[in-house]
Amino acid sequence: MASCAECLAWGLTYAQGVCDACYQFAAPARRHLVGDCGACGRSVPLKNGFCRLCWCQAREDRAVSATDPRAKTVLAPYLPLVRYQQLFLADLYRPRASARSAPRRHGVKGRPLKPAPAAAGRPNPIGAQMVLLNDLPRTYRYGAIDLRSGAAPDNPWLAWALHLADVMSETHGFSPMVRRALNRNLVMLLATHADTDTVRFSDFDRVLRDRGASRLQVVDVLSRMGVLVDDRPDTFELWLDAKLADLAPAIADLTRRWARQLRNGGPRRKPRHPQTVYIYVSTTRPALAAWSQRYDHLREVTREDIRTHLEGLRADQRMVALVALRSLFTWARRESVIFANPCARLSLHKPPPPIWQPMSDDDIAAALETARTPQAKVCVVLAAVHAARPGQIRALQLHDIDLTNRQITIASHTRPLDDLTHRIVCEWLDHRRRRWPHTANLHLLLSKDTALQTGPVSPTFLRTRNGLPANLEKLRIDRQLEEALACGGDPLHLTAVFGLDETTAIRYATNALKLLHDIHAAPL
What we know:
Elements: E1 2-3, E2 10-11, H1 20-25, E3 34-36, E4 43-45, H2 52-65, H3 156-172, H4 176-190, E5 199-200, H5 201-211, H6 216-225, E6 228-229, H7 235-243, H8 249-264, H9 274-292, H10 303-311, H11 315-334, H12 361-370, H13 374-386, H14 390-395, E7 401-402, E8 407-410, E9 413-416, H15 419-435, H16 459-466, H17 472-486, H18 491-498, H19 502-521
Parallel strand pairs: 5-6
Antiparallel strand pairs: 1-2, 3-4, 7-8, 8-9
Helix pairs in contact: 3-4, 3-6, 8-9, 9-11, 13-15, 13-17, 17-19, 18-19
């Protein structure tokens, strides 16, 4: 904290010992040269011959002495009359509001809310003239049409788009700011739209990104209209090309075909979960990269090569790698691109399951202390009290919480709602109601992105929002292990409390019995 060297305001100072406002005032792009101020005589950066402190004082003098409201826009007559300065805190100066100015009552920044657009439907394109060279890229830019000072252009396609946008805004509870941004984007794209025109995503993507506007709502409206040409590159193909870039050409080609079939499915083959495809490709890539140094094709890989690769992995990685390699070579044999499957009848000794240990009180206390936001508190209490998985937390909806009967339904299993969970959930619901009062998303957890949609939050949202030393998965395991220890390793009790299947309940019961045996067998 210090006094600014230019405006003398007390507060935080930055480069050259000046506050942020004076630093921006003297920025080179503003071309405010250093000279003697015409009012106070100090040698500081000037604007039209006067320093920033005198400009601020002139605004104060104008607000006090001016009687004509129309003269409020003119500061020049007050600058030479400045003989003293009223000091202020740095970066907190705001011009005084005029008592004669009308209050802002509607909308944002004083603009009144416009009436909803008239209902419109798809225009009739019968007899429309085909556009010559429709594949040429188009250039879109902001500012050609200002909706604040005029109405939208008279275009039937634009009228239909604005009607769809209004219905979407009402359905999803968009804020006025989001509505106006969506309308501006649609006017920019469809102001001159003809019957046979199309809108390519690549033509307006950069324009919207430079403006910081959301593209999801624009894409949704254009897709409903059937005029969008989504020419975005497939992210999976880009990722796959990067993964297979350093492999031998034949090995990379076969691996690409196998990954595409896993993702898209095939004859009598259902598509696998996208996360499974990513894990399989990432797991097999180290082995394929090593074999590409010696071989040109998958048919040259032998059983010994696979055993050698698996021996260099840990127990948990070894099993995943074997499953992924078995899937790859089974597909290659079925497609007749190799002569024999080197993974056939290849099995590994399955290691015994690990013995989970209860978490310490310090770790649990640190996790509870770190959860400060309403979102983090809900996630922690659902994992630590009700043993809910992260995916189950993301899938929870509002109708799964029965506050009247004090019940909660997690993965189709209804259980009582304890006092702690009831209080945390009520706090989150109050925060959710204040933050997104008009959202149509029925999921319990929301983010600034999913509040405008209807889907759940992403898995990354749970990881980045909590910042817990003990993650949600560890808290869930510790809660189920604590219940297993309390009931003496009874799997039926675990199934009734948490809705576990028989295999999982027996595993927790066995783990608890092992811990209890070690405790009783330990010497005193």
